[in-house]
Prior knowledge:
Keywords: Kinase, Transferase. The chain is 34% helix and 20% strand. It is of the alpha/beta class.
Amino acid sequence: MTGHVLVAPDKFKGSLTAAEVAAAVADGLGGGARTVPLADGGEGTVEAAVSAGFRRVPVTVHGPAGQPVTAAFAVRDGTAVVELAEASGLQRLPGPPAPLTASSFGTGELIAAAVSAGCRRIVLGVGGSACTDGGAGLLSALGAKLLDRDGGELAPGGAALRDLDRVELTGLHPALAGVEFELAGDVDNPLLGPTGAAAVYGPQKGASPADVAVLEAGLRRWSEVVGPRCAGAPGAGAAGGVGYAALAVLGARRRPGVRALMDLVGFDDALRGARLVVTGEGSLDEQTLHGKTPAGVAGAGRAAGIPVVAVAGRCLLDGEQLAAAGIRAAYALTDLEPDPARCMTDAGPLLRRLAGRLAADWLGRSCA
Length: 368
């Protein structure tokens, strides 16, 4: 059988970047594979773009708790890839979660830096946020004024939105009008309600039931002032409501995160002529089936009539679920090493061994 092997995985969170996963698999296959590291809009999105030839641009911004952090966006040919997790992610918190006060301000600073650098298309990857502020911080960093009834500026965070009286958008960065925004993520939740940003994702960011009620009230007031038109849109609840600000104020177009990244890094060109595709992520589970990288890659492979197999740290999906997603087989590190801690620390060597098994099964190569 002729044709190349395409290796297009996401990261193994906590152990390997997507590029490291791809390199380990390619090495274990015996060489000759084409590698296209991917992401779904969350953590690792900028890294995947850089692996595809984008240039990393570091920027000092405010983290979710207001502290200075060094984040980065990726740029090529006037397109910037901005990853919310870089500036406003949970991993950027200097201490315990701060669900009521965490802000998306730093993400807005990354966007401002990209716009000031001349970028006219911004792909905003949303996922892994520490904040539930409806994107209020992001817009503030871009020049919006959020004022209470006395004309004072609101404090950062979702809780303060309960005191919002008006939003002044006249000070927004003047170049924003000429920028095309894409909202890249796998979350389709609305802003408000039982499936909204506060109710579903607030607890993951440390919010108690009482905190969730406070955040929901703040987001509701935010949508009343900014305008309710986009509050119910799929993706408005992404990243604690940053999706809402992007849709309602920046005029963003929502796309599945993995598809947006696949287009940016030239996945379809790399797929052409392949005889096998290897994808993967740290955990193949129910979330994988809802827009994660392996599901996106498998869908593209199935449409092209090319078999897709997956590697993972662990696999919690049965054969029927894998087949329904378009994945012919899954190979997990836990097949080789039952100790999860060892799977994390020795992920690279284990993955190379696993790829040897995959080569024996699908390419007729020895896995010795």
